[in-house]
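JOB MANIFEST
job_type = single_chain_structure
chain_count = 1
residues = 114
[input]
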Amino acid sequence: MNRSKKKIICTSFGEGRKHDFRLFKESKVRIHPGTKTFEDAGYQGIQKIHANSEIPKKRSKKTPLTKEDKKKNRELSQIRVFVENIIALIKRFKIIADKYRNRRKRFYQNDCVN
């Protein structure tokens, strides 16, 4: 999402139920190494693909989160809330669930970052 233009830069979708990270890997979309990304906790392991990414730290039974970890997770969630609202909008209006019936020129697929 480009915040200044309020425009979705790239999206990918697939048929049926599929995990977000698996869908990302199968889409073959690659992110420029200089681009900083903020993912949710479902993208565990994305650091191997894209080193400049941040995901929230998860707690375990043996290692609870420190106050610094909680603060960082809160900051990440405040950044991600904008993206999550756009995803909710797409789902609410079934933008991806239905077939696109307009002219192909109006479907801006060239905005994807490859």
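[summary]
The two ends are 15 Å apart (CA to CA).
Strands lie at 37-38, 53-54.
exit_status = 0
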